[in-house]
TrEMBL record:
Domain of life the protein comes from: Bacteria
UniProt key word Transmembrane: yes
Name of protein: YggT family protein
InterPro entries: CCB3/YggT (IPR003425)
PANTHER family: PROTEIN COFACTOR ASSEMBLY OF COMPLEX C SUBUNIT B CCB3, CHLOROPLASTIC-RELATED, YLMG HOMOLOG PROTEIN 2, CHLOROPLASTIC
Pfam family, one: CCB3_YggT
Protein family membership: Belongs to the YggT family.
Keywords: Membrane, Transmembrane, Transmembrane helix
Transmembrane segments: 6-30, 71-92
Organism of this sequence: Labrys miyagiensis
Length: 96
């Protein structure tokens, strides 16, 4: 059972990196550093959007409106961190 929880922790960490890449990519597009007219940039943006939007959209609906400030990635990072801490602290040491 312990290897399954280790895999879950690693998958959560990979998703956190994907979320961070999505945030950086959105900043690069917003500040016109990269152009979405480039097919490679558009495909990377589409992949990042498809991977992160199913998690971020429900959180955005529940958070109050802060104008242009999107706090949903912070909430997802906190949830990922809490899940990892729960798995590491309570599940893995108690497995015989």
């Amino acid at each position: 059972m312990q290897p399954i929880f280790i895999i879950i922790v690693y998958l959560l960490q990979i998703y956190a990196f994907i979320l961070l890449a999505s945030i950086v990519f959105s900043w690069l597009v917003a500040f016109n550093i990269v152009s979405r007219r480039n097919p490679m940039v558009a495909s990377v943006g589409d992949v990042l959007y498809r991977l992160t939007e199913p998690v971020l959209a429900p959180i955005r609906r529940r958070l109050p409106d802060f104008g242009n400030l999107d706090l949903s990635p912070i909430v997802v990072f906190l949830v990922i961190w809490l899940l990892q801490m729960e798995i590491v602290q309570y599940v893995i040491p108690n497995v015989p």
